[in-house]
Amino acid sequence: MAKISVIIPAYNAEKTIAETIESVQKQSFSDFELIVINDGSKDRTVEILESIQDERLQIFSYENGGVPVARNRGISHATGEFIAFLDADDLWTADKLELQLMALEHNPKAGVAYSWTCFMDVDEQGKPLSFLPSPRYAFSGHVYEKLLVSDFIHNGSNTLIRRQALESTGGFDPTCPGCEDWDYWLRLSTRWYFVVIPQHQILYRRTLGGMSSKVEAMKKVALIAMEKAYQAAPPELQYLKNSTMVSFHIYFAGLYLQHRGDTSGISQAQQHLWSAICLKPQVLLDKTTQKLFIKLLLKLILPAKVANYFLQLMKKPLTLSDPRLEA
């Protein structure tokens, strides 16, 4: 029986699955089982998986059910004392499992360990264009209220979870596709403490060309998940919904500015920023909001090519060796 079960849902992941699994194989902690749930792939995903020589790798194939269902199926096969999830297009740094496991073993009351995320923007061929580190949140202990305001864990490839915590919470909710992660972290945080590893250990892949068509769908799902979250929240925390809406508007203003350069996208970004400011004027003091405001002004005032030129200058792309990624 392995100490850790790593669960990877995979659907038509032929372009990235080998690199993702390689990042698991390179872990400094090696006592793990690697469970891949082939979620009805129609491409060469299974062929690539079957070519990998590693006795820790197990492949289970099902009809397509979506990420929440695939993760739940993976849990049913897992035997480890701790469970980690990794999406088929994301990567881990080599010390991810080791440091998260160490944190949980040193904090027996904690049920979940998480790290910082680095967003890796790639082109349609998967070539990295830039690396953008997430904010360095250091929330530990009882984090339910913080999570209710904003999903600071950022993605489903982040956490390491005790089996007892996972079993006490149930599975991922298939009715929340796209926001099943936030929903699950919230349910875990009502029962268990969280502990943070203050390092960027998750590389979250974003295909820039593929995001523009997804923003509207993501927004609808986020609103549904938000309503579910506050239906479950106790009366004394209902006042936080205003702050959650501010986080929602800031997040989607950023998505529209980054992935929708057309007139409609810029207009949506402007509406979201204005809504956030109306709800909480102090948000203008936040550096993230200020940067978004500058980007919006550039796109509103300057011709598209000129605006994009200045936006590229603002980006300051990182590399994996950049010291700005260090804790």
TrEMBL record:
Residues 5-246 form the Glycosyltransferase 2-like prokaryotic type domain. It comes from the Bacteria. Gene3D superfamilies: Spore Coat Polysaccharide Biosynthesis Protein SpsA, Chain A. InterPro entries: Glycosyltransf_2 (IPR050834), GlycosylTrfase-like_prok (IPR019290), Nucleotide-diphossugar_trans (IPR029044). Pfam families: Glyco_tranf_2_2. Signal peptide: none annotated. This is Glycosyltransferase.
